[in-house]
Structure formats: structure tokens, C-alpha cells
Amino acid sequence: MHVLRALQQSPDSGVSVTGLARMTGLQRPTIYRLLAALVEGGFAKNVGGSKRYVANHNIAMTEPGQDPRIELALPILKNLASITGDAVFLVVRDGYESVSLWREIGAYPVQILATFAGKRQPLGVGSGGMALLAGLDDETIEKIIAHNSDRLEQYGGMTGREMRQLVQNTRTRGYSVVGNYAVRGALGVGCALYDSNHQPYLAISATAITERMPAPRQREIAKLIQNELKTLATKI
Asked: Strand 87-94 and strand 52-55: pairing?
């Protein structure tokens, strides 16, 4: 709460870890850990292209009318959650991060619900974010990985090298498969929708416990998502 209050009292240009340590009297390693929790929870965000942070005053978008992408994708999310029985997510890119805009929960009794509307994390550590990251050009990917390098370790020991391999795997398959990074014991499958300039516009992912996601089912779910996304292609 001390760190969050310091962020809320800081200017829009943000404050560095050193500045937060000075304002709160906490050690830098502690600041890094608390910032990671605040960012993961959507309460704080990085100021794009810098090492400064600000409080996020709009931590969640929970009404379809608040973002046109939610209204666009909501019928598809509901349908996929019904068909698969799993949790389905709408994910978009915001600079170096991914943001979950919406979550639909399926009927299967065991669900992976650590991700929620408004949650931010480094682009690529989740299956939706990886689908978006893999659709970018190589130069942009390298900038994003380098920018997030200090935070990747917090996500299941993710490294830049592993992220590059996941990008390559995603490009080869045509969909992402990411397990045990953002959420332990979970595996997600994600696919991206591209705009007229062939830039990633949004991604939809489905996540379940790892035991429920063998390779054949991964392919089945990816095909379901891809087929649904085709219906959106003419609407963006």
C-alpha cells in the first residue's frame, strides 16, 4: 500500500524504482517484488519505453461498451467457453504488455482463473500475449523482450531465449501454446486476429489445467478459435 500510494502521488511521467525506494524507505529488491505484484494485478503499469511506473487508474474494463473489441468478440468468447468448457480470454497489446479485456468461464469444474479483466503482464508470457507477440516484426519483438527482461524471471523462470523459441513455435504452428509460465499448472492456446495492415489486433486464448491439454486437444482448440476469428476479420 505504501508503494501504491507513492505511485498515486507521483506525476504522470512516473517514478523510478530508486525514487520509490527513497519515498517509501523500502529496499530496491522489495520494491521490485511489490511492483511486480501491483503490475500483475493491474494496479500499476510501466511508462512505455522507460524504467518508470505509474498507478493505473483504470485497472479493469468489465463492461462490453467500454471497448469496441469486447463487444466485437463477446459472442465468440461465450461460444468458445460453452464448447470447450474452459476459461476463454480476450487479450490485446498495450506497448510492452498484454492486457486481458474479458474472461468467459466454461462449465468444466476445474478452471484456471488467475487471469482476469484488466490484468497486465509482459507481452508473451501468456498464450494470448504470445499469439500477439509472434505476429510482430523481429525488431519489435527484440525490443519488447529486452524491455521486459527484468520481469520475465517472475513468470515461471521465463528467459529471453525461451520466449524467442516460443515465438518461433507459434509462427510454425500458426497458434501459441504456453504452459506453466504465467500460471503454474496451466496451459493455454492462443490465436491472433490481424487488421488490414497485418498487425495483431486482438487475440483469443483458452486455458485449462495441463492434464486437460494434450497436443491433439491443443490443435482442436486452436482450430475452433481460428474458425471463430475468421468471422471477425471483415468487421475490423
From this structure: unpaired
Domain spanning 2-55, CATH architecture: Orthogonal Bundle (1.10)
Q: Could you report the per-residue pLDDT of 73-120, keeping only the tens digit for each? A: 999 999 999 999 999 999 999 999 999 999 999 998 888 776 777 888
Report the side by side order of strands in the sheet with 97-104.
Answer: 120-122, 97-104, 87-94, 200-209, 186-194, 176-179
- The pTM assigned to this predicted structure is 0.74
Task: For residue 216, give the C-alpha cell.
Answer: 491433439
C-beta atoms surrounding 71 within 10 Å: 13
Burial (CB count within 10 angstroms: exposed 0-12, middle 13-18, buried 19+), residue 72: middle
User: CATH for 64-235, among 2.130.10.10, 3.30.460.40, 3.30.450.40, 3.40.50.170?
Assistant: 3.30.450.40
Residue 67, C-beta contacts closer than 8 angstroms, at least 6 positions apart: 61, 101
